[in-house]
Amino acid sequence: MLLSLCNEVLRDYPFPDQCRIAASLGYKGLEVAPFTLGDDPMALTEATAEECRRIAEDYGLEITGLHWLLVAPPGLSITTDDMAVRGKTLSLMEHLITLCASMNGSVLVHGSPAQRLLSQAATPEAARENAMDCFARVASWAQAAGVTYCIEPLSRNQTDYINTVEEGAEIVAAIDSPAFKTMIDTASAGLAEEEAVDALIRKWWPTGHIGHIQVNDTNQRAPGQGENKFTPIFQALKDVGHDGVVAVEPFVYEPDGPNTAAVAAGYIRGVMENLV
After folding, report:
1. Strand, coil or helix: what is 110?
2. Tens-place pLDDT, residues 127-156
3. Cα(244)–Cα(80) distance, integer angstroms
4. Nearest to 2 by CA among 245, 253, 184
5. Which CATH number fits the domain that encloses residue 226?
6. What are the tens digits of pLDDT across the range 171-216?
7. What's the total number of domains in the chain?
8. Which H or E element spans position 94?
9. Domain with 27 in it
10. Which of 8, 59, 185, 260 could form an SS bridge with 253, CB 3.0 to 4.6 Å?
């Protein structure tokens, strides 16, 4: 498994320093949040994406993908009835797919809970239809670009649309594209699911509907900084044959970003060394 660090953990540093720090801690990849590269991700060019890829490679890293896709600019939504807003959102989604491919990334993680609320349309049914239209379009674009677009189930305290892996899998089945998947975020799964995360992995990974995993504690800190036990999670990943990317995505950085990243790397390395 390739351990990747979500770069907003180090967003106070210039991108080359993010790569240097991540590599020094033993990470092999970086998962990039577009808003960390500029206030308006639409202004990011393919040349910028390729330069980020080159910088990462200089430090022995690969850019594994993008996440937190719709944080900036403000006012985006996939569920809204406002066709102008939805059109602007789709334009950014298409652009980010292009940027991800230019970085040699393989996955885009669609979390962005504030930009997918059922209340952003006249009815919950309309909101779901609007979102499905967006998903069908991005699936086509992702397939053409050779990347995978993953919708991220998030806990109910973040959004009221797509909270469980089962809900994500139902959408994946409806879209029916090899480039459109759902995923597991261990913190949200720990809060929203009835089953343990390792059981979710064993149940859903073999279906082919899961395209990615992010690891974080339900206290929003890094693995190793809370009460969650990650040995069963990594054992399940090994048992189902996952040999791809595992992304570390804490949201609370204590005492700071580099130390949070260091704790996660050391803890996970210890867990992985003791798998059977």
Report:
1. strand
2. 999 999 999 999 999 999 999 999 999 999
3. 34
4. 245
5. 3.20.20.150
6. 999 999 999 999 999 999 999 999 999 999 999 999 999 999 999 9
7. 1
8. helix 83-102
9. 2-273
10. 260
